Structures
1.
Amino acid sequence: MAESNRKTQILKDSSRLFRKRGYTATSMRDIAAELNIEAPSLYNHIKGKQEILQILLLDLAQAFTHGMNTINESSLSYRSKLERIIKLHLDLTILNPDGMALLTSDWIHLEEPAFGEFVKMREGYELSFRHILRETLKKEGKESANIDLALFSILSTLRWLYSWYLKNPDINPIELEKEMTENLLSGIFNRK
Amino acid sequence: MAESNRKTQILKDSSRLFRKRGYTATSMRDIAAELNIEAPSLYNHIKGKQEILQILLLDLAQAFTHGMNTINESSLSYRSKLERIIKLHLDLTILNPDGMALLTSDWIHLEEPAFGEFVKMREGYELSFRHILRETLKKEGKESANIDLALFSILSTLRWLYSWYLKNPDINPIELEKEMTENLLSGIFNRK
DNA sequence: GTCTATAAGAGGATAGAC
DNA sequence: GTCTATCCTCTTATAGAC
């Protein structure tokens, strides 16, 4: 992941710039300027702009897939698994908010085969999420709810959490987790 | 808004392309190709690429501001106003899903003074939303909730609804409204 | 590992014929 | 109102000196 110190620096600065201006609108000169070097110097550390995007996105998608696998393989109740998934999103958001922004918007600019790998990982993730959500709803006798719409609501909020976190970086993570779990799950389970 | 037929066509095709590839990654040649003309011909109808973005975004922001004003000036209860705001989002999403995508992501690429106007309108809108949400929570004795986080959750879901709608265009709008209102408001009001 | 110079191409936009 | 030709700038990336 982080061979040299310089490469780590490039990846970090790139993700921040990509988050702020978008991948396409960020130039190699912009990235280089952030490191106080000239653009061609970047190519001693990375193959090109596309490689930066691929590393950033695929590493993060891996972290999500790995986290979901761990939850899936556990012996927790479905409801607890659901809470763990929310915690997984929160943890990764606090650890890497810039990366989360790319996951939400700049993944479209991935080129093949990275694009296909990314979409496949995301689909697998959402399928697991959907399964756990459906089983939880079943156990709580709420089979009537529109699962896809509920999943979509939860994912939308979790995906945009990075922007909220960037504006409120001082929040207590445990408080945040408590509030988010309430907001997201009560909407589905505590209907009148 | 729509002086000539050609201009309307340009705006419509542009918003679809911007939604799919992003503003920066869409070229004037791409837009022209969609209309089966050459890029320079576009300039007989619009001043440039930036003008297209500005018309699309400011018109839609206007629609939101106007809708919110109408709700604010009404004599409805706060809870009913909240439901009307959700309906406003749903209506505009169904009417113009491509535009909603720009509202969520491509507004960063607006240049001044359009950028400032847009941000000002959005801030006013969110302030009204926040006020109505707070008053509703107060009336229902739920003052403990984190209002900003609740507002953020609701807005995240509403802003991403366009992507869900594009994948599920056959849903009954009334059914959608009912489900969304349940999902979004129960999470805040029906906590155990 | 960083630099300067530069290639090769894409993009927004204009001029002027028809 | 659309076209072809063209300008100018920005962009990614490479070559080769230091």
2.
Amino acid sequence: MSDSTDLKKAGLKATLPRLKILSILEEPRARHMTAEDVYKALLDMGEEVGLATVYRVLTQFESAGLVIRHNFEGGRSVFEINQGGHHDHVVCVECGEVFEFYDPAIEERQRRVAETLGFHVDSHSLYMYGTCLGMKREGRCSKKRIPGTGTP
Amino acid sequence: MSDSTDLKKAGLKATLPRLKILSILEEPRARHMTAEDVYKALLDMGEEVGLATVYRVLTQFESAGLVIRHNFEGGRSVFEINQGGHHDHVVCVECGEVFEFYDPAIEERQRRVAETLGFHVDSHSLYMYGTCLGMKREGRCSKKRIPGTGTP
DNA sequence: GTGTAAACTAGAACGATTCCCATGCAAAAA
DNA sequence: TTTTTGCATGGGAATCGTTCTAGTTTACAC
């Protein structure tokens, strides 16, 4: 299905900035981007889009369920395209790399805890922070820093 | 053990601002406070402490392991005194109330996941956001808003 | 094509946090 | 005791990410 159709289904007009932003987030290598990252990517591809628009659009996308917003350590938000399957995150504080995982047992226990407390859960987030020792991407921890993650 | 001893053990001089801030965080009703909350509490008790000092001291306390910093949804940080036992959080987006829980099974599964990934975990955070239907504190969801939590 | 509401841009404003620096104070040296 | 040294402080300015405002442009139903 085209991006344009995705947007209309979400009740949003298919404007140029929105289409561009969506396409950037859909690139496989994009995964977790800050608003600033998206803005820079737009500039790099020669698009005239204001930073304010990026923030507005990302927030709209979040409301529409097209993207998911994460608040990693350090305060700033990172966005990820919503491809359906829920998952949690492991963040390497050395290289800033973000890995994903899904554990049914954890999900089930969370449901249980909420039930016990009489709590209706809208969303939950689970992040693990540490170092990717022996992680196999390019041999080891890549030392490349991704904005919005890790410690200084 | 006195606060003064706690500070010295953490390698920090026992200065007045630090003692005051520590004592505020130790009050049982304090639990989860923003830097601003701590600052206001100091002003209320007639102390002359700068906001910058509050931030600086809280960060030092965090490094020393005396307090834990949380990044709840909404961006701002909330601080909680570290009383040893690790726990996770359930945040009511209606009233801003924060509840704590600990589930050994979840902790164990997390450890397992990290192990599988060859990842050394320094810390992790698990938050559930929702509404505290039927929660029994003062009958129900108290509608009192706590800074740094919840949606607008 | 045209009208209208929605979306856009740039820049100002905002709130949280950090930086800067002159001053204060307490432990170590003389 | 006096001097020195160095960390801690307070206040305001600066910075950062994010949101708001005003005026202009665009998408889409007619």
